[in-house]
User: What shape does this take?
Amino acid sequence: MHIMEGFLPPLHAAGWAAASAPFVIVGAVRLRRIVREKPEARLLLGASGAFAFLLSALKLPSVTGSCSHPTGTGLGAALFGPSVMTLMATIVLLFQALLLAHGGLTTLGANVFSMGIVGPWVAWAMVRGGGAVGLSVPVRVFLAAFLGDLATYVTTALQLGLAFPDPATGFTGASVKFLSIFAVTQMPLAVVEGLLTVAVVNWLSRNSADDLRLLAEMRGEEKDSGHVA
Amino acid sequence: MLRDNRIVLGLAAAIVLLPLVMPWEEKPSFGGSDDKASGVIEEVRPGYTPWWEPLWEPPSKEIESLLFAGQAAVGAWLLGYYMGRRSRRRDGDTGRQGTQRRARDARP
Assistant: This one.
């Protein structure tokens, strides 16, 4: 899902950066407010960021014969909402762009958009929506992380299709080509990400009742309002 | 089923290992999907050259894998720290308070 350094035309690079910037700022503001008002949530915040840091460092083999990595943003999005994870993903992507030559500074805006905005928002919407239709917590968390991961990679494919339309088949043809690489490879890895996220939430529900109560308080809702906590 | 972490983690491990033990007709390279995408770019727009280069690149595959391992280690360490702080001890105490209390109670 990393669009490599210099691989987006300058206009596209600037456009995605402009699209992502407000989300990053809102994420920073939200994070600051959580840390200020609920300092006891810092530990779980750190753990959510750590999960994204860990998962996005793992390049896993897929049944297509190539490797790719999960994103790890679904967990934090389910717990804290999507904005906070936008900031976390930005930190991860910046680290990888500067030290690993993975992704890049010119493509940071586009990569933040896919991994830090689309993925977390899809995951969060799934957690909320799944609660509304009465799915159990583990099923909701699984679907949230699975779909968030997949949506991240679909976004990358569309971004590349937009930047490199096929001379014969245009945006659609190019997007299909990129989707066949990213989305298909990502399928089993998105399932793995869903499972790992469920494992962490299972652990939280058994060991971190206080933290989950805190999250419920932060949202100012009843405990069973169709949310993970 | 999804509530039992043994099943959940076992399934995740199986899916990760499956491609490595699958009977392939020809052995795949297991290269990164990002590189494959640049192949498609080359196909669609032959001769496209990136207009910006990374400021710094790991000097070798080994150094790159070191840095990836470092990233995973930092993530796992923080996650483990959280779990250690929050894990329930059998006597119902959690974290440092339990340790301090037990230390206090142990004094004659």
In short: Chain A touches chain B through 75 residues (CB under 8 Å). Confidence is low (pLDDT under 50) at residues 221-226 of chain A.
